[in-house]
Amino acid sequence: MPGTRRVLGPAKPDPSAGHDEVQRGCAVTMKLDEARELVARANRMIANEGVLDAFGHVTMRHPTDPKRYLMSRSRAPELVQPDDILEFTLDSQPVKPTDVRLYGERVIHGGIYQARPDVNAVCHHHAPSILPFCISGMDLKPVYHLGATLGEKVPFWDSRDEFGDTTLIVAKPEEGASLARALGPNWIVLMRRHGATVAGVTLEELTFRTIYTARNAALQIQAHSLGYVSPLSAAETRLAGEYNLRPGPVARAWEYWNVRLDKAEGNWAGQKARAVATKKRQPKRKTKRRR
User: Fold this and answer.
1) pLDDT tens, position by position, 62-104
2) In the chain, which ranges are continuous DSSP H helix?
3) 197 phi/psi in degrees, rounded to 5
4) Which residue, 72, 62, 211, 195, is CA-closest to 124?
């Protein structure tokens, strides 16, 4: 995702620059605007699928500067808009001074981006299906093919181990670094008595993994009520995970969740077209002419 040219923020035309230089600067600006739109939509999409609620957050590494990432100001994910998206350093400090309220757990994201150059998107959530595992300490395992994006191991992180009694909010840089170490080379880490943090190579992959791992958790709990649970083998997890994270399946799911979001927000073009067509088909009511 990171680009080769690092022009930070909106590029302003330089009178002394050549035409090609100005064009490249404008292209970077458009790319950043597109990234803000994608981060905002990902927040709302994952909320629309019931994984995020009033709390939690989705971020993406800056499209042209890998030493920065994009994150919304503090607000419920379902409400996030492109104008809410700000730039942060990997130390989780805003690039530009701001008076708006910021998320307190930014270091979750900054810590992972520092530790994992291969990660370009992160989601922290408290999905109801995930929390029973965080509370009980029971291992979360892939129990169906789409759940294979969990990976072969889902580690736990317990803030008590290093920090004792806390608010459970991951707000200090050392706490974020500790969580990143617990994640290690894996793609999801469960936070005891708190929630989950998920990573992805792309924002689309992250969205896929976040939604389907939460559904996998719900299915695992339901299956336990029936008796023995037979999870995927290590080889099945690896093969199914690779298969489902190909561009085709990820794009198909991304399109599906986009349309579901548009429908929920009343912006789906197909819905509007049908409404217009229905209106045209309705017979006109005849009115009696007054004499």
Assistant:
1) 999 999 999 999 999 999 999 999 999 999 999 999 999 999 9
2) 19-48, 106-115, 131-136, 159-163, 173-183, 203-224, 234-244, 247-264, 269-281
3) -125, 130
4) 195
pLDDT of residue 269: 83
CATH node for 38-262? 3.40.225.10
Structure tokens at 83: 């104008």
Which member of 105, 175, 204, 205 is catalytic? 105
The residue ranking higher by pLDDT, 277 or 48, is 48
E strand map for 73-209: 85-89, 121-125, 156-157, 188-191, 195-200
CB-based contact 22:13 (threshold 8 Å): yes
Query: Which is nearest to 129 in space by CA: 219, 57, 226, 229?
Result: 219
Active site residue 105: yes
Q: Which class for 225: exposed (0-12), middle (13-18), buried (19 or more C-beta within 10 A)?
A: exposed
Contacts of 266 (CB under 8 A, 6+ apart): none
